[in-house]
Design a protein that fits this description.
The chain is mainly beta. Helices cover 11% and strands 30% of the residues. The protein has 7 helices and 17 strands. A 10-stranded mixed sheet has the order 1-17-16-15-14-13-12-11-10-9. Strands 2-3-4-6-5 form a 5-stranded mixed β-barrel.
Length: 352
């Protein structure tokens, strides 16, 4: 059986990757268009899964949506804080100019890419500045494509971060007009995808944590911890904890293990590579934008650290006869930067 390989691409902007951590930007917003408005901040909610603020555009102005309140959506706290943006950069009562992708759901909602602050400084969440030569952009850490090679002895057991190494496991979640024919979908899977209504069927609504394999798309730090008989994979998004049961004992217990969103994972090492086989995932989703996954799916992950410890390469192979006519292989990488640590996600239901 041949394997269909979908490689990630470094040309996707870091803002799209971070924004897609909770839900699909391209599904909720028109990423091919930009809307610009100016108004006064009337509400500011510093929260996960998305930091949101409201602008009141005064009547009688030339701005689109005059006299209306606009909801401006940004990244999660986990994402926006790593751009160097703190909650005190602007406040209720400040006048801001913003530009971003208009919502596909309603006319008064924007996913923001540029914010002009009262003092003239511009926040640039990917792409080019629009109004100012004084900008606040992604940190060097977010743009880093190479990791630190100073601690090779740590091996795989450390905290890994995405940096700017093309870490988009499911490009359909961030790319507008993605060509789903790149996946070898079965007729049943095609029908499920066509029937999927993101506004109603978003699997992460109300802070529902992602299951396997979708959770592995998240762009925040991931820590791998040696626990002897098991390996713990801590993932910042949704404060997720995956247990990988090692050796024969894990395989023996697999048959009796109950299904769950993260499935049941058994691991072993092939040299420095951690190989993890996951079954019994009850999540029901391959990605977050409509491709299903059956309970019979077998997920095989390979985590391979470079010898110097600077980079972790990842391959995910999904075999599911109900969804794909051939196994699907996805890839991404992380880098090691010693200054990176896991944050607390604490998603708040009702704030999607």
């Amino acid at each position: 059986m041949t394997t269909t390989r979908l490689l990630t691409t470094a040309t996707l902007l870091a803002w799209a990757s971070l924004a897609g951590a909770h839900h699909s930007v391209s599904a909720w917003f028109d990423t091919t268009s930009m809307t610009e408005i100016e108004g006064e901040v009337t509400e500011f909610r510093w929260q996960n899964p998305h930091v949101v603020f409201t602008l009141r555009v005064p009547a009688g102005t030339a701005a689109s949506g005059e006299g209306a309140s606009w909801e401006i959506e940004t990244l999660s706290i986990s994402g926006i804080s790593r751009w160097g943006i703190t909650r005190d950069l602007f406040n209720v009562g400040d006048r801001l100019r913003v530009a971003g992708n208009p919502s596909r759901r309603n006319s008064n909602n924007i996913f923001v890419r540029n914010i002009l602050l009262p003092g003239g400084r511009e926040i640039v969440l990917g792409g080019a500045a629009r109004w100012s030569d004084t900008t606040l952009r992604a940190s060097e850490l977010l743009q880093a494509s190479e990791g630190d090679a100073s601690r090779p002895e740590l091996g795989i057991y450390r905290t890994w971060s995405s940096g700017s190494v093309g870490a988009v496991l499911f490009p359909e979640a961030v790319q507008a007009n993605f060509d789903f024919s790149r996946y070898p979908l079965t007729p049943a899977a095609k029908a499920a995808l066509e029937a999927f209504d993101y506004a109603e069927d978003d699997p992460t609504r109300n802070c529902t944590p992602k299951g396997m394999p979708t959770i592995m798309e998240q762009p925040y730090p991931m820590q791998i911890v040696d626990q002897g008989a098991s390996v713990l994979i801590r993932i910042e998004e949704y404060d997720t904890r995956r247990i990988v049961h090692m050796a024969a004992a894990g395989e023996a217990a697999a048959a009796a293990a109950p299904p769950g969103p993260l499935g049941y994972s058994v691991g072993h090492f092939e040299g420095a590579t951690l190989v993890v086989t996951t079954t019994k995932s009850s999540w029901g989703h391959f990605d977050s934008v409509g491709i299903p996954l059956s309970a019979a799916a077998v997920l095989v992950e390979r985590f391979t650290p470079q010898a110097d410890g600077s980079r972790l390469d990842y391959t995910l192979t999904v075999t599911d006869a109900a969804t794909f006519t051939a196994p699907v292989e996805l890839k991404k990488s992380w880098i090691w930067r010693p200054e990176v640590s896991l944050g607390v996600f604490e998603c708040l239901p009702g704030n999607d």
